[in-house]
Amino acid sequence: MNPEIEADSSIDFTVIQSDPDFLVVDKPAGLVVHPGAGNSSGTLVNGLLAMTPQIREVGEETRPGIIHRLDKGTSGLLIVATTNDAYQFFVDRLSQHKIKRTYQALVWGIPEGSEGIVDCPIGRSSKNRKKMAIVSNGKLAKTIYFVKKSWVSSKVSLLDVELETGRTHQIRVHLSSIGNPVVGDEIYGGNRKNFTLRRQFLHASKLCFEHPRNGSICEFESPLPDDLKN
């Protein structure tokens, strides 16, 4: 058990699917997923513990029930396991690339071609330990993108992005590395003064996975939140 992580019913998030084995949560931008060093409150996990206290015994002590993460400034869908059997099932499926995660990203510039793959390894930046970077001895990472629409006059493009791996800041690092940083991303070059967006334009819009008990295909979608629509 981890008694230090307190339940907090004031945390704002939406549950779009409640199953005996898992929840599918729609996380708003600005909400940290789980407690970290020096930060034990105000996270999604604190809110989840108020809603489903049994997850305290599921998975890792400091991030109970959490299968995969989203950055604080990224909105969208997350799977939360509510039993240990489901947790192990989802962790295994994630490692086998059998959970399909699709994001919508608005990027600066117009990528070459209608789709592409970025598979450069990612690791901690040697120049700034708070940043990730393309490094030769980093962890394997693979990002697939599809250009949905481009605006030549504004020099921006809307992409659907699929992850085969889940490295920290992976989409942001990979898209920045090909010269198309996510709009609004202050860390990886997407913050431009002529754009008023207050966070990175990155939204986890779709999830597709097998049900842990019966193997049926579960698909969920989350529309763009208002701050990205506008």
Automatic annotation (TrEMBL):
Per the record, the GO terms for biological process are:
enzyme-directed rRNA pseudouridine synthesis
Sorted UniProt keywords: Isomerase
Q: Does the keyword Magnesium apply?
A: no
User: Can you name one GO molecular function term for this protein?
Assistant: pseudouridine synthase activity
SUPFAM superfamilies in the record, alphabetically? Pseudouridine synthase
- Residue span, Pseudouridine synthase RsuA/RluA-like domain: 21-177
**InterPro entries recorded:** PsdUridine_synth_cat_dom_sf (IPR020103), PsdUridine_synth_RluA-like_CS (IPR006224), PsdUridine_synth_RluC/D (IPR006225), PsdUridine_synth_RsuA/RluA (IPR006145), RluA_PseudoU_synthase (IPR050188)
Q: Could you say which protein family the record assigns here?
A: Belongs to the pseudouridine synthase RluA family.
PANTHER family, per database record = MITOCHONDRIAL RNA PSEUDOURIDINE SYNTHASE (PTHR21600), RIBOSOMAL LARGE SUBUNIT PSEUDOURIDINE SYNTHASE D (PTHR21600:SF44)
Name recorded for this polypeptide: Pseudouridine synthase RsuA/RluA-like domain-containing protein
- Organism from which the protein derives: marine metagenome
At the highest ranks, the source species' classification is: unclassified sequences, metagenomes, ecological metagenomes
